Amino acid sequence: MDCRNHPLQQTTTRRAEKPHARPLFTRRGDKKTELATFVINDEIIKSNPEAGSLPLQHTSLLSRYFGIAKYNRGKTINMAIARPVRALGLAAVVMWFFFIWQVLKPTSTIKRPGFDFKSFERDPNLDATGEPEGILTYASPEYAPGPKGTARINATLLALVRNEELQDMLSSMRDLERTWNHKFNYPWTFFNDVPFTEEFKKKTQALTKAECRYELIPEEHWAMPSWINKDLYKESTQILKENGVQYADMVSYHQMCRWNSGMFYKHPALANTQYYWRVEPKVHFFCDVDYDVFRYMQDNNKTYGFTINLYDSPESIPTLWPETEKFIAQHPEHIHENNAMNWLTDKVRRPEHNRKANGYSTCHFWSNFEIADMSFWRSKAYEDYFQHLDRAGGFFYERWGDAPVHSIGLGLFEDKNRIHWFRDIGYQHIPFFNCPNSPKCKGCVTGRFTDGENWLHKEDCRPNWFKFASMG
């Protein structure tokens, strides 16, 4: 049918000839009732909304026009907006609100595939932080520089540093001298695999009233051991590099990790030294510390102190834990009854790390900051363990770091209650922080773990340490 001959279309063309159909009203008592008005084939049809119906003879035309007709007792119809129209209207409203929500909602956190990170319910660094419990010794005239400083115990600040890192080392020294060592004047001991320049010596000594010592690492402590197959080393490091392991092809990095793991405390310059505080170039200290941290370690029977606890790259240490298990099987007598085995082997929080590292969670104390008693490294348990690892070759065939090696040794062979979190020492090694809630701290954001990408928060292993050990 030609749409122009449709009855409704004809009505439309004739409307100009008819009086305008407008709503009519009838009064019933005090109620005004609007009558719906339709024009069909020149006939004005009125429908009372209270009756809700139209004469049956107009049903077919109206149903075609409106798309819906509901019969009432077989004689009349109730008129309503067509269902498709209602559905489209509702969909439009829903889409509008969805669009507004998308625009106004907070930006979602970008997460790496497969990562479901759950942070602390409340980071303990947000709580007010004071000095640690226990015996504390404060600054006094007995800590004066030189021979008058009789209160100092057998300890040193220790740094492995290259001549070209002078400016970054000076930055670290300024921070630590300002926040702590100007009160206690403990000596600085610097190590290098080549002689220090006169410029390095002059500028570092100028930053402190304490004694500075400059030591050369013996060749036999630094060189690649004779039992390492150099061809296998080259092949292995190439594979590590292809797998994205950082510094894999830098032999000096492998040498440094080995030296820090089991050689530094054998240096003749440290033969009579018990405690050390490791300080690296380009780190920052934010909080004033008013007590002698070395005396704290001694007087409160602590072996090791840390600030940051992280997950390691499992690709760099795939055989470290299997070799550790071999050692444990051979020397069960070395395992401490109050060990931190659960922390070392947890597979709940980062299961992919445990799988790739063959049973090791990869949790470790970040050893660029460590305050420790060298008596532990010199113990038979740790020395036997280091010798086993050294002969296995993983410091060169893989990239075993001193942080996981130290941490596994401590977690297995030491009482976990003798490991202390220095929560009151504000510290940064890019990109991670330890920033307590204390009026003594300036320059860091309370509770901030990293100022890098948000996904870096997943690297925080403190929740596991606090779960399986303590905050002590």
Automatic annotation (TrEMBL):
Keywords: Glycosyltransferase, Membrane, Transferase, Transmembrane, Transmembrane helix. Pfam families: Glyco_transf_15 (PF01793). GO terms for biological process: cell wall mannoprotein biosynthetic process; protein N-linked glycosylation; protein O-linked glycosylation. Residues 1-21 are annotated as: Disordered. The keyword Endoplasmic reticulum does not apply. Belongs to the glycosyltransferase 15 family. This is Family 15 putative glycosyltransferase.
